[in-house]
Design a protein that fits this description.
alpha/beta; Rossmann fold; Dihydrodipicolinate Reductase, domain 2; 11 helices; globular; binds nicotinamide-adenine-dinucleotide
């Protein structure tokens, strides 16, 4: 039984992520959803089918910010309205769970960081890798000294996911929209600032932005990293597959993880023990994020394991820097727009693919 009444919440932006937040909140006794806002009537129609009776469904964000009963607001629109929403959250003293990125430009994100700093509202950002069991397990193993000193951080995330032009136009190129998660987790493992980097990218199917990027470099503490990210992994293959791993190489041992979006496998090869752990992948880990945030609101202080605004801004900043570096180098083009049309057709009309957006989105080229 809950020891307190549910925390009253509103959601702004009821697309793919907004729906995930609602479904997760409905599973928990910690939350009570009061209102959902989306500017698209189709999205509100979907919400009407899922939300409990009595939930206010509105196209006006101020219906949520002005509601004195709402304590927590979830921000899951695209990035172009994030800064405005976060500024309103400060003005109306609402605690916030927000999607990344925190603005559609890095300057907007710095503005958000400055606005939030020193303010008493609690804000966490959905950087789900930070709360994933497999990364926490590996970090504990590293901290126990089993692999010696961490020296090399290798991260790869290649899927047949979001196709060029399909959506998320406000979040920047793919390495910013999705890649920032991997920039963030490399930073989290190294526990040090990025020092140097080189990046190589490729433009696929004649799209104007790179859709695969690899960056490598160093951290201030001497750890080196490589990050490979792209939604270029066999979109038209008969059977879809992907390649996601981390590889943490120490001076004495290693720890690594692979997953298939269903199960994650962690392999620990330390100086005194060898262990393999297989558990459900956990996907976006919204259950962990929302549980920890609910506890934080009740306690009045943010749980230290929850991602902070500054973490998200650093990840975003370096994702942009790696994209800028890639743009200074040769950036070849492979594939043509006809293939891209086939990919979009398969994903949007036949609904085959990873990370499909709920609704058909406008292409923006
Ligand atoms: N943290 C993660 O792992 C993760 C994963 C996927 C997406 N995201 C982020 O989540 C956000 C949403 O992504 P999505 O896939 O749900 O997109 P989506 O396009 O499915 O949903 C966005 C919704 O916001 C609505 N919207 C846009 N502007 C609005 C406004 N001003 N007021 C109210 N509603 C508005 C749209 O109508 C749409 O329904 C993006 O910023 C994306 O970067 C994060």
């Amino acid at each position: 039984m809950p020891t307190h009444p549910g925390i009253k919440a509103g959601i702004i932006g009821f697309g793919r992520m907004g729906e995930m937040y609602l479904l997760q909140m409905l599973k928990s006794t910690q939350w009570q959803i009061l209102a959902i806002c989306d500017t698209d009537p189709d999205a509100l129609a979907v919400a009407a089918h899922i939300a409990p009776p009595g939930t206010k469904l509105t196209a006006h964000e101020d219906d949520i910010f002005n509601d004195p009963d709402i304590t927590v607001v979830v921000l899951s629109t695209l990035a172009d309205s994030r800064k405005r929403h976060l500024f309103k959250a400060v003005a109306h003293h609402k605690h916030i769970v927000t999607e990344k990125p925190l603005g559609s430009t890095i300057q907007e994100e710095y503005d958000v960081l400055e606005k939030i700093s020193g303010n008493s509202i609690l804000v966490t950002v959905n950087l789900p890798l930070r709360t994933a069991w497999y990364h926490k397990t590996i970090r504990e193993f590293i901290d126990s000294g089993e692999i010696g000193d961490l020296a090399i951080v290798r991260i790869c995330h290649m899927t047949p996911g979001l196709a060029p032009g399909e959506g998320h136009w406000a979040e920047g190129p793919l390495f910013h929209d999705c890649g920032l998660h991997y920039v963030d987790i490399a930073h989290w493992y190294a526990q040090s600032d990025f020092k140097t980097w080189n990046a190589q990218a490729i433009r696929m199917w004649e799209y104007h932005e790179p859709w695969w990027l690899q960056a490598h470099g160093t951290f201030e503490n001497g750890i080196v990293f490589d990050i490979t990210q792209g939604h270029v992994y066999g979109q038209l293959a008969k059977d879809l597959i992907h390649n996601g791993y981390v590889d943490l190489i120490g001076t004495k041992g290693i720890a690594r993880m692979t997953h298939d979006f269903v199960t994650a496998t962690v392999e620990l090869h330390g100086i005194t023990k060898t262990q393999t752990i297989r558990k459900p992948f956990g996907d976006k880990n919204l259950d962990i994020l929302l549980d920890l945030f609910a506890e934080s609101v009740i306690r009045g202080t943010l749980d230290p394991s929850l991602p902070k605004v500054k973490d998200a801004v650093i990840a975003s900043e370096y994702a942009w820097k790696f994209l800028e570096d890639a743009a200074r180098h040769d950036m070849p083009v492979r594939g043509d727009s006809k293939t891209l049309e086939e990919i979009r057709e398969r994903r949007n009309n036949k609904r085959i693919g990873y990370g499909l957006l709920r609704k058909k989105n406008k292409f923006n080229e």
